[in-house]
Design a protein that fits this description.
With 94 residues, the chain is mainly α. It contains 2 helices and no strands. The longest helix has 57 residues. Keywords: Membrane, Transmembrane, Transmembrane helix.
Amino acid sequence: MNINTYATTEKINVQFLKICNRFHFIENQFTANYGRPLLEVFILWRAVFVFIFSLWGKVFDLWVTVFCLWGLVILDKKEIDFEFSKVKDILILS
């Protein structure tokens, strides 16, 4: 994982922690106002949010990796095309 991907992942983690903190605040308010039964519902929702955000982070890392590899393929293709054009010029001149 390069430094840019690491920094982006850290930003995502910070945003996720902010969302979790806000979620805990709302959860505590519901518990204080309405009692314990809603707590189980929020535990389920928390599990759903954790799963979605962890999956999204993995998909984002995969997307960055594929994009970087695609860029390398494009650069290699340009170099190969350039080398073939030099070979064609040499054949035409000879």
